[in-house]
Amino acid sequence: MNDYIIRAIAANDQIRAFAAVTTETVETARQDHNTSPVATAALGRLLTAGAMMGTMMKGDKDILTLQIKAGGPLEGITVTADSKGRVKGYVGNPDVCIPANSKGKLDVAGAVGIGFMNVIKDMGLQKTLPIILLQVNRYHQQLVSEFL
User: Fold this and answer.
1) Which residue, 2, 44, 57, 143, has fewest beta-carbon neighbours within 10 Å?
2) Orientation of helix 37-54 relative to helix 23-33, angle to 10°
3) 127-141 pLDDT, tens per residue?
4) Cα 132 to Cα 105: distance, rounded to the nearest angstrom
């Protein structure tokens, strides 16, 4: 099975929906970086978000960078994506191993910790400016619903 992204637009371009299957991309990242299960889950979520957000960019040479800088044992995540949805990324500490959360699931929020997420869009201009700065906490497990 190949990875893919589905995009939908409705209501005169007022509603956009995205869905993605990125199993192969995440597995490749896991193998390349030898990440623990919780590090793989965190990196996989940001790789998927980067791929979807990257496909929203219009220019062929546009590059999107997502950076999570937080205080958890994962020590941050960085992902870059292009307008074709191609992504690459890494985590600061690929060997993170922490107990499951209260629901018995991987504690991605605990691994990431509290911090900030930068969204940077490089459109080939002389300088690159951050366009979004979000505070990340244990309750924010999803990315922003609207990308500028």
Assistant:
1) 2
2) 130
3) 555 565 556 554 444
4) 29
Check the CA dihedral 10-16-19-22 and report its sign. positive
Q: What single letter denotes the amino acid at residue 38?
A: V
The 8-class DSSP code of residue 2 comes to -
Across 31-59, b (16+ Cβ under 10 Å) vs e yields eebebbebbbbbbbbbbbbbbbbbbbbee
Residues with Cβ < 8 Å from 147, sequence gap 6 or more?
Answer: 53, 56, 119, 132
Residue 145's pLDDT is 31
CB atoms within 10 A of CB 70: 21
Query: CB neighbours of 107 closer than 8 A, spacing ≥ 6?
Result: 38, 98, 99, 100, 101
Element containing residue 120 per DSSP (H, E) = strand 115-122
Q: CB-side exposure of 51: number of CA atoms within 13 Å? A: 25
DSSP string, 36-100: -HHHHHHHHHHHHHHHHHHTT--STT-EEEEEEEESSTT--EEEEEETT--EEEEES-TT-----
What are the pLDDT digits (tens) for 18-33? 999 999 999 999 999 9
